[in-house]
């Protein structure tokens, strides 16, 4: 039994992909520059060398082509794992994802499962140019037939990618690109929990903070920073964005009476809107203040010199927490 | 059918040029048009293509053509009578579809649009399983895996990429088959269709692109999609394109067979343009009189795909009036079965809309379905209320 | 001054398009089958005959092509009005809309206005096949840089389409296709109010019902039906979906203390989520019950035999209203 | 430059075949390759293409090539020193870009990708207005209307449709100009690019498609995008395609001029494949050693687009060492100005992100911007906090 080793989030996904490919010959990877180059983030590093060009496919430069052919491969019994190079480049494939990938299982009354994983490095904070720092998850969470998850740390990344590949439904797998280089101890012999569940990552009593992907770390930093002031934040990593797994959230909010939802995506119609609406429906009489949202502003993602101003950070989270107390 | 030198010689030129004697109206289709059976029912030979069908096979071919047309006519009638929400007629395209269907081998996989009822018939799909879609009961009730005939795809062009992906899967499986992608003239303008050409060529996938150029995309004539014959599109992507008389079931069969065989044997994709005509409206909701002249249709009537086979069967003595009568009778029975099956078709279970959204049902949707069922049952017996409410709304 | 005449919603848009083209030679229409056929709903009937093929352009069958060339035409100073034949067919153009149409004005710091209108017949209830009855408005309302409106009656349709065309920003114009045949008196000499405002369409005291597009009529029917039971519903036609114009809504909810939002789009992350979240943030202490949502279920739009079960109707609205009282 | 019959005759064959004496390494480009100036700096004639440039013009051309390269080298250095977030180098593609830029007339409109710094130079775009994009200050600071040079477009392929739409606008305006769409070899696989071919052909829009085939799409060699030479793509859509030596600025100028003139005079679109090579990394974030051999680059070094012009200028006596020294000096000044301008470039105003989202600002966003400003000012003086928080986060 190999001892736990310290790996980065990017490497953890690489290891998860490798294990999934070893365990199931029907798993194959498709994408731009994922072969020799190993992907622009090196997440598929070394996989083409070991599994060959038929299972790690460098595709033509066309996202609709990637997803459209993945649909055909899935019909043929394969489990394609498609890499979209950056969040902002998933839109050429949007038609295939929303009208085909999401609907074919239902259209065929279950006869054509769409076992497709769509890997999307998402979010900002890396000083990139336009279209390389976006958070499009709400576009997919609003779409029936798709499942959407996001990992926030190397251990989840390793297990969640394998669970997504094993799932019999199409899964959008959002990878927090600015956290690719974060490290954690990974025990590959451990037993992971279910994929579509949120997780309590820090207990607290005064206010519940919900986050996913890159913002989980930020939320935990906020909780640590405010502890000294004697305020105790409970932090939950949502992990599943569709379906949302909010039961633990309801329990938490009923205890704390306050809630702040955090994401990088624009606030208007972001995940926070749905989560706030549901919490209010379920916990109406427990709420001391409305559920507040801390998201990206409702503008296009700005030039990188402004991204620190645009992105939710520790201060903006604490500011929102304060506001839940001054209501 | 084996041809006597006489037959061959007499009209080889015609066959080669695609201009059949006494029928100059094919001129606009150009000299590349591949034809083996003229509108008058004469066999013509072609340097590169031929079919060798026994009289039995020719009669079976006629039977398919006749029954497919009857299915279409009956469905159109059922729509007019309010039994179907809409129907997309294949009238005039029977030759292209039955010919392509006959070229398919068991292991091949077909990817239709929403109009390939004739191909469906050759894949043994029950017409009622298609009608249920147009009646609004489901999105197609046949098994796409068992029939090797994918579900209908309404979003123009997307299925061409599915076909290429499926073909890439066959490649990886070392399977013997090929994929056959159907699409229309209008679809050739879609990005996805052109991407599918890129992919098929780059991976030399075992796929054949079968374009039924029925001259229209709803109201838009082919000139709105391309300045040059569609089959030439393939040139730009590095694989062969051919134009075949889409109303000549023999030529379509020969051309599609050859292309599928090439695909199966690792020679990559082929683009087939089946030059035909949509004799009916785009769908039962359409009114062609707003955008095309009746005279155009008259000219195409003379090239009917079924009449020419009948003419050949009669001339060649391969079939007599008794045969045609028997087909007529079989068609009547089929039509009656379709009518009865349609009218008696049960409505889907309301709660069924929640069942197949996912392979692994979510707790969230399960709850929503349960609430729906509970709410719905609160109207138990009072279904009229619901209905009226729905209509009022 | 012509006397008010009774026109259908479809005809009203046709008249509005005609007037916009007469007033500004830079206005042109693009789409599939909009010329000779006059569009599958006849909304552009007769316009190509009168304005010619250069201003009413039957395009190749490619939605991305329609929007992509519209962008170029807009850069050249034109005001393209693009018809998407049905809601479900807007997705091939999604990349152009979300990454270009929405962003070019900002990208160019205002130097390249995108004066583009995208007409989308949307919603169900017409017994159509797959992809012909959807409500994709949330995908666009979540996108910064776009503006989104929907009309609910012939009079608004006539004025709103002209205002959308005159606007200097890209506008998604959602037309309630099941209401195309509804009639109303139209006075083309009247003075319309601003485009991006909601409108109180029925005063009431007990509960505020919010709707837009096809659901406005349904909401009004619900209000009429429940009046006899002595319950008074206030109905607001939102009209603007991005930006939302909620000030009148806040005022109303502060009076009624209760609110139900109705739309055909799937409930999860539909407009109702954002509206509920904002109302709760602004009217927290006025709410007697959580804002409830009545939307399509979170499934693909079902086969037409089931659409009456899927679509929000009078009964489901009243059921939700009842629930706001039993909280 | 006017050619003496001698020059012409001597190497007409070479010119016609594109295979230049003593340089067989162009063989893989195929006989269709159009070339007017060999890597060795010899003029060769071509039956269909020629340019007539005065010595002054040739020197000006050299100047542009040299300055453009210096801009690129300086920007790369600035990125290495942390002054830019990223840089997309045009190293090796100067000939293709300056040649295409020179072919543009004032009324024409160019639609670049993110790499056309050389074309930008010919449109009088200040290099600092490009650098501000890669520094992360904005998305390009030049005026696309005034310069007739569109903003950079990062989403692969979309700008080809913009160019066609713009050209359709010119058509409707009865304007004299044409649109020039730039894209790469990888972009040819995108649906949008192929749709732009459909539209350009159907409307015979005054547009020229200028594809710089630099052999790679990041790490993927051209074989991953097409099995046949890219210029042949045009055949499938009904308009001419040509392949030109992209490192031969004279041939590129001649070919692009002719294509633009054809477009302006209603003869429709042309596809130009400028056959070249990306000498640098895809961007400063890329590591080409992972996917290509240094030897490949060595072979292409011999075909440098600038060296050959210099060789010709020297051989022909059109320029002396003083001239080259003066260009060198000018390049040094330019580089210094760029360096200074970059380092002193002010950061954008944080609140500016709210200002240009819409032409008509919304009350909602105005409020959000106001809240932002208020919140932001609460950190007044303590900008470090913000920064650190941002980094920690
Ligand atoms: C992406 C998309 N856009 C628009 C439509 C609406 N539509 C349905 S059929 C059709 C015309 C298709 O023409 P063609 O490809 O020639 O096939 P045909 O109907 O003639 O068989 C259109 C525009 C659609 N189904 N999908
Ligand atoms: C739609 C889209 N997908 C992916 C990318 C990421 N990307 C940026 S450049 C590039 C390669 C482009 O290759 P090519 O078209 O040959 O142009 P070149 O960079 O070689 O000049 C890719 C895949 C993108 N920008 N847009
Ligand atoms: Mg057609
Ligand atoms: Mg390239």
Short account of what is shown:
The complex is a heterotetramer, with two copies of chain A (327 residues) and two copies of chain B (393 residues). Chain A is of the alpha/beta class.
Write up what this structure looks like:
- The complex is a heterotetramer, with two copies of chain A (327 residues) and two copies of chain B (393 residues).
- Chain A has twelve helices and 14 strands.
- Chain A has 327 residues and is an alpha/beta fold.
- The mean pLDDT of chain A is 97.
- The N and C termini of chain B lie far apart (61 Å).
- Chain B is globular, with a radius of gyration of 22 Å.
- Chain B has 393 residues and is of the alpha/beta class.
- Chains B and D meet through helix 7 of B and helix 7 of D.
- The structure holds thiamine diphosphate (2 copies) and magnesium ion (2 copies).
- One magnesium ion binds next to strand 4 of chain B.
Biggest beta sheet summary of chain A: 7 strands, mixed
**What is the 3D form of chain B?**
globular
Based on CA atoms alone, the radius of gyration of chain B comes out at 22 Å
Please write the string of helix (H) and strand (E) elements of chain B. HHHEHHHEHEEEEHEHHHHH
Strand order of the largest sheet of chain A: 3-2-4-5-7-6-12
Oligomeric state of this protein: heterotetramer
Widest beta sheet: strand line-up of chain B: 1-2-3-7-6
List keywords for this structure.
heterotetramer, A: 327 residues, seven-stranded mixed sheet, five-stranded mixed sheet, B: 393 residues, alpha/beta, five-stranded parallel sheet, two-stranded antiparallel ribbon, globular, disordered N terminus, binds magnesium ion
């Amino acid at each position: 039994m190999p001892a736990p080793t310290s790996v980065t989030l990017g490497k953890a996904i690489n290891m998860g992909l490798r294990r999934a490919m070893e365990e199931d010959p029907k798993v194959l990877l498709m994408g731009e520059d994922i072969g020799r180059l190993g992907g622009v983030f090196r997440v598929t590093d070394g996989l083409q060398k070991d599994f060959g060009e038929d299972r790690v496919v460098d595709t033509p430069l066309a996202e609709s082509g990637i997803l459209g052919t993945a649909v055909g491969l899935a019909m043929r019994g394969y489990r394609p794992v498609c890499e979209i190079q950056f969040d902002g480049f998933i839109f050429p494939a949007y038609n295939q994802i929303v009208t085909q990938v999401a609907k074919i299982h239902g259209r065929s009354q279950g006869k054509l499962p769409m076992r497709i994983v769509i890997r999307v490095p998402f979010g900002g904070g890396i000083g990139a140019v336009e279209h390389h720092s976006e958070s499009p998850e709400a576009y997919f969470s609003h779409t029936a037939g798709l499942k959407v998850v996001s990992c926030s740390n190397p251990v989840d990344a390793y297990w969640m990618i394998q669970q997504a590949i094993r799932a019999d439904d199409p899964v959008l797998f959002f990878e927090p690109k600015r956290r690719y280089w974060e490290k954690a101890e990974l025990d590959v012999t451990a037993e992971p929990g279910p994929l579509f569940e949120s997780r309590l990552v820090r207990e607290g009593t005064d206010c519940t903070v919900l986050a996913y992907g890159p913002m989980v770390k930020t939320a935990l930093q906020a909780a640590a920073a405010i502890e000294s002031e004697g305020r105790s934040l409970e932090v939950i990593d949502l992990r599943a964005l569709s379906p949302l797994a909010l039961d633990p959230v309801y329990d938490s909010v009923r205890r704390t009476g306050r809630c702040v939802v955090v994401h990088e995506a624009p606030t208007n119609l972001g995940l926070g809107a749905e989560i706030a609406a549901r919490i209010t429906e379920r916990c109406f009489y427990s709420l001391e203040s409305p559920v507040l949202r801390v998201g990206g502003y409702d503008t296009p993602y700005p030039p990188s010199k402004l991204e620190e101003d645009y992105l939710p950070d520790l201060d903006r989270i604490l500011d929102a927490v304060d506001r839940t107390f001054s209501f | 059918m084996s041809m006597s030198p006489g037959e061959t010689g007499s009209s080889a030129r015609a066959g080669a040029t695609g201009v059949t004697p006494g029928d100059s109206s094919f001129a606009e289709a150009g000299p590349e048009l591949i034809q083996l059976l003229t509108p008058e029912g004469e066999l013509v030979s072609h340097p590169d293509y031929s079919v060798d069908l026994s009289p039995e096979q020719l009669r079976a071919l006629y039977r398919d053509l006749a029954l497919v047309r009857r299915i279409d006519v009956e469905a159109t009638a059922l729509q007019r009578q309010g039994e179907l929400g809409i129907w997309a007629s294949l009238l005039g395209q029977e030759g292209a579809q039955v010919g392509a269907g006959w070229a398919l081998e068991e292991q091949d996989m077909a990817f239709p649009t929403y109009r390939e009822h004739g191909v469906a018939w050759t894949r043994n799909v029950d017409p009622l399983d298609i009608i249920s879609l147009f009646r609004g009961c489901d999105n197609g009730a046949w098994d796409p895996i068992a029939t090797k005939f994918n579900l209908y795809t309404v979003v123009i062009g997307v299925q061409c990429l599915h076909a290429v992906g499926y073909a890439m899967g066959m490649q990886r499986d070392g399977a013997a088959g090929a994929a056959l992608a159907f699409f229309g003239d209008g679809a050739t303008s879609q990005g996805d269709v052109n991407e599918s050409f890129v992919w098929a060529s780059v991976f030399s996938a075992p796929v054949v692109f079968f374009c039924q150029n029925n001259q229209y995309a709803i109201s838009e004539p082919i000139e709105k999609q391309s300045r040059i014959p569609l089959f030439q599109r393939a040139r730009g992507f590095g694989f062969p394109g051919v134009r075949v008389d889409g109303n000549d079931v023999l030529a379509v069969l020969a051309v599609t067979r050859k292309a599928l065989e090439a695909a199966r044997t690792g020679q990559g994709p082929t683009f087939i343009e089946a030059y035909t005509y949509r004799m009916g409206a785009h769908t039962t909701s359409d009114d062609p009189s707003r955008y095309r002249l009746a005279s155009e249709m008259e000219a195409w009537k003379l090239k009917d795909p079924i009449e020419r086979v009948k003419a050949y069967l009669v001339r060649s003595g391969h079939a007599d009036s008794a045969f045609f009568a028997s087909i007529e009778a079989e068609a009547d029975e089929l039509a009656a079965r379709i009518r009865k099956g349609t009218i008696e078709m049960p409505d889907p279970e309301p709660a069924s809309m929640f069942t197949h959204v996912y392979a692994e049902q979510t707790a969230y949707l399960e709850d929503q379905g349960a609430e729906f069922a509970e709410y719905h049952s609160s109207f138990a017996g009072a279904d009229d209320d619901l209905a009226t409410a729905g209509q009022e709304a």
